Amino acid sequence: MLIQGRNIAMDHYASEPLIEQCSDPFPFDIENDPSYFQIKIENKSASVRTLANRGLKNFGSGKKIVFIAQGRATTKAVSCVEIMKTYYKKPVHQITRISQIKTVETWYPLVEGLDPIRITRSVPVINILISQEPLNADEEGYQVYNHRDPKKVLNMQQVEEHDEKQDAIDNSEQKENIPTTTPSDNINEDDEQEEES
């Protein structure tokens, strides 16, 4: 049932529990391992600078750091890792895994004459593991960064400027996504919509 561009009264529907499927479950076996430190990043998480500093503090103590993010927050995770690699003077070993979470939302009509609606969304997920110690070079997504040219090292003012620019972009995107229609029209045009017979 195509619903793009149509004003459908969703109060005539009841939703089923959301179904989530991850194409690649958490790829690193770190459960109950004290040598790892996880940082989960969301859109409304602390600033990139704050998250990177948190990572550097634990990375400097010898821990392996795992950044976990999904959706728009994936760019924050990448920025945090790049900042950490810039400040840390020794080789940094990294494994990056990218996957996606697929969600299926099903709505069933409460009145006769309407068809069920199924909406499928895909959200990108990124897991980045960085370590001072060598990792398995045969692992998918493995790379190593050696000490960089000191001229390319960012100072904290440059990091703050980068952070402010990223926050401005995030705020601008949030304003653009404020709904101006009724809740029943609030369906992403990128969603895949299917009709169930």
Secondary-structure topology with pairs:
Layout: E1 13-15, E2 19-22, E3 36-41, H1 48-60, E4 64-70, H2 74-87, E5 92-109, E6 117-131, E7 142-145, H3 156-176, E8 192-195
Parallel strand pairs: 3-4
Antiparallel strand pairs: 1-5, 2-5, 4-6, 5-6, 5-7, 6-8
Please characterize this protein's 3D structure.
With 197 residues, this protein is α+β, with helices and mostly antiparallel strands. It has one domain: Alba-like domain (Translation Initiation Factor IF3, 2-Layer Sandwich), CATH 3.30.110. The protein has 3 helices and 8 strands, in the order βββαβαβββαβ. It has helices spanning 48-60, 74-87, 156-176, and strands spanning 13-15, 19-22, 36-41, 64-70, 92-109, 117-131, 142-145, 192-195. Strands 1, 2, 3, 4, 5, 6, 7 and 8 form an 8-stranded mixed sheet that branches. β3, α1 and β4 (64-70) form a beta-alpha-beta unit. α1 crosses α2 (74-87). The chain is elongated and about 65 Å long. It starts with 12 loop residues before the first strand and ends with a strand. Residues 177-186 have a biased composition (Polar residues). Pfam families: Alba. It is found in: Nucleus. Keywords: Nucleus. It comes from Orchesella cincta (Springtail).
